[in-house]
Amino acid sequence: MIDENHLFPAEPTQRQIARELYRHAKDLPLISPHGHVDPVLLADDQPFPDPARLFVVPDHYVTRMLASQGIPPARLGVPSVDGSAVETDGRAIWRLLAENWKLFRGTPSRLWTEKVLSDVFGLTKPLNGQNADEIYDELSARLAEPEFRPRALFTRFNIEVLATTESPLDELHAHAKLAADGWGGPGGRVITTFRPDNLVDPDWPGWAERVAQLGELTGLDVGTYPGFLNALRSRRAAFIEAGATSSDHGHLTAATLLLSDADAAVLYRKALGGGATGADAEAFRAHMLVEFAKMSLDDGLVMQLHPGSVRNHNEALYQRHGRDVGGDIPSATDYVHALKPLLDAYGTDPRLRIVLYTLDETVFTRELAPLAGGYPSLYLGAPWWFLDSPEGLRRFRETATETAGFYNTSGFVDDTRAFCSIPARHDVARRIDAGFLARLVAEHRLPLDEAAETIADLAYHLPKRVFRLEKNS
């Protein structure tokens, strides 16, 4: 289905150079330092249930596009929060996808899906409404084979590190099972990531109840602000014991605020009592980012900051199906002023490492690249979510490289729940980088040997170092 030269430059000279550079990255192990694969998938190693529940139901890129054309998520098998009826027939869901496949022309979803169908499952026929059942049956047959169970695919995908993402309230049973099995794939490992958003956002429904759960889990008194901080430190230590090397923070804004312990305690008490205003909640979230940076100085977790998503913008979708089903929208984000309190306090401390992501492309040249070039603690994360497309990846290299260079970036992250798409997404990034570097070589701005070294660094060595996945990193 896919030509071997896909995504390489059309200009013949650059295409030939890109092919040569891609060869240096193509077979390097995959480093996946930020993603959302459920670790239970690998811990239990059960067969995938059917093609629809592998490709459609959990993929909000897919369900969002179909919903935009009037196909409700319930018809695509997306669970409802109130238990109301949704489609359960995998074949019917798959047919809906195939019959509407033209909606995905030009999108990364189509590219990823076709690469998975071709590279992972060996299918060669383009998907359409006429062959939907035939392809569904072929996929179902393969999914029943031992070679297509999650652990076998993990090994075949050549994944060296796969980071999942869990709340501090997660007791990490799946990771414990993987450790007890002594399993991470030959030469690979599965680690967790500390994601505390639901415990530092008083605006998030159920926040006080989750804080109480934190106290029960740690056996510490979270009725006081110092006790709350100690409980978070306790969970960070447990995550590090389970292999975590980073934390992840998905706040609406990048705001940071350095409060005194007394002022922070006042905000915490107000929030626990249900009296915090919206401004109080934002101040508490901003202050906690600084607190987490301070904790990172002690325990070494790399901070990842993902601001700029207005969550649950589609209220009807949220009420029917809950969070993380395609109802979030990017928003403009300020980094220069928002991050200054944190950077004033710790930005030049060699122990701190922060990876910054954005959904607002306008800030790559104006804010993020200069910031990464000005503070040793900062690295630019890969284009994320709405931007991890071929064009988004190209624009990132074009807008960030002249100011930040390559080595103030942190490599590619797949940021996916769709396990089988991981190699496809990494391959897309490696091909885009090959094309970008090929232009520099063709324009005599970079020698070929340096470009070859650079693409290997971007694909493999940089993410290992930045996310502290190797010794002395």
Quick recap:
This protein is an alpha/beta fold and 473 residues long. It has helices spanning 12-25, 39-44, 51-55, 60-68, 90-99, 108-120, 132-143, 150-156, 173-180, 197-200, 207-218, 225-241, 261-272, 278-299, 315-321, 340-346, 363-374, 390-404, 422-442, 448-466, and strands at 30-32, 159-163, 189-191, 246-249, 302-305, 309-310, 329-330, 354-356, 378-380.
Write up this protein.
Helices cover 49% and strands 6% of the residues. It is an alpha/beta fold and 473 residues long. It folds into 2 domains: 12-47 and 149-467, Metal-dependent hydrolases (TIM Barrel), CATH 3.20.20.140; 48-148, uronate isomerase, domain 2, chain A (Orthogonal Bundle), CATH 1.10.2020. The strands form 3 sheets. Strands 4-5-8-9 form a 4-stranded parallel beta sheet. Strands 1-2-3 form a 3-stranded parallel beta sheet. Helix 9 (173-180) links the parallel strand 2 (159-163) and strand 3 (189-191). Helix 1 (12-25) packs across helix 19 (422-442) and helix 19 runs antiparallel to helix 20 (448-466). The longest helix is centred in the middle third of the chain and has 22 residues, at 278-299.
